[in-house]
Amino acid sequence: MGLMDGKRGVVMGVANDHSIAYGIARALHAEGAELITTYQGETFGKRAAPLAHSLDAVAFDVDVTDPASMDALLENARSSWSGVDFVVHAIAYTDKSELSSGFAFRETSRANFLKTMEISAWSFIDTARRFAPMMEGGGALLTLTYAGSHKVTPNYNVMGVAKAALEASVIYLADDLGPQGVRVNALSPGPMKTLAGSAIGGARRTYKHTEANAPLRENASLGSIGGTAVWLCSDWGRHTTGETIMIDGGYHVMGMPVLDNLSGH
User: Which residues does UniProt call coiled coil (predicted)?
Assistant: First the structure.
């Protein structure tokens, strides 16, 4: 039997076959989970729909800033299943023009700050509010973050602030929902070659630097992230909540680059 046999859930934010959401959905499906996936907009739908089909899933176009769209997703889940065992939130957005310079003053606009926070942090809270009542027997809520939430990362800027808010939301949701058996956790992969990752200025250099200096000398893969998600969504993860799980080859433990990569002699 697969670890997820008999379990049903939603994976939000599938963009293409390189997206972290797809890697997680693929791993959950391989272990027997029944899925609903979401994407946003017709452009992503052209790629997301065939991917959903390959996972025996149904894909819905969902805009997390539109309450009616979120209502429709919840109603589709209710009409398909009597309950939900997990929801994976792989949703984030900011104007990429604000990820290529400084953070202070005019580089961070008020409008984009608010939009970034709404989509990248608030939408997870909104998702939890909607789906937790469907987890009567307990369940798992997962979101995705990055180390730029607590350590300055080049060009991550307003997204780092939003991810910090997201991680704080994880621990407060874990406390609120724990009594009903709902676990709330975040996955924090290192740099990834994804559509979202490519929007950050200097992404290739960051990816290479992390790979060269992480203890394992590797960045995360879709498989390793998906496997961690399976653990947390399965019964094996039933006593893990309020955590941000690092999946970065150990890079987060390093205080500076490895000796061979230090400049100078």
Answer: none
Residue positions annotated with a catalytic role? 146, 156
91 is in an annotated binding site: yes
Q: Where along the chain do its domains lie? A: 8-250
Assigned token pair, 88: 């994976």
Q: Which CATH number fits domain 8-250: 3.40.710.10, 3.20.20.140, 2.60.40.10, 3.40.50.720?
A: 3.40.50.720
pLDDT 10s digit of each residue in the chain, 265 long?
699 999 999 999 998 999 999 999 999 999 999 999 999 988 887 888 899 999 999 999 999 999 999 999 999 999 999 999 999 999 999 988 877 767 765 578 889 999 999 999 999 999 999 999 999 999 999 999 999 999 988 888 899 999 999 999 999 999 999 999 999 999 999 887 665 655 555 667 888 888 999 999 999 999 999 999 999 999 999 999 999 999 999 999 999 888 888 876 5
- Helix (H) or strand (E) segment spanning residue 54: helix 41-54
Instruction: State yes or no: 20 annotated in a binding site.
Output: yes
Structure-token match 């604000």, residue found: 98
User: What single-letter DSSP state applies at residue 201?
Assistant: T
What pTM value is reported for the model? Answer: 0.92
Token duo for residue 50: 């065939």
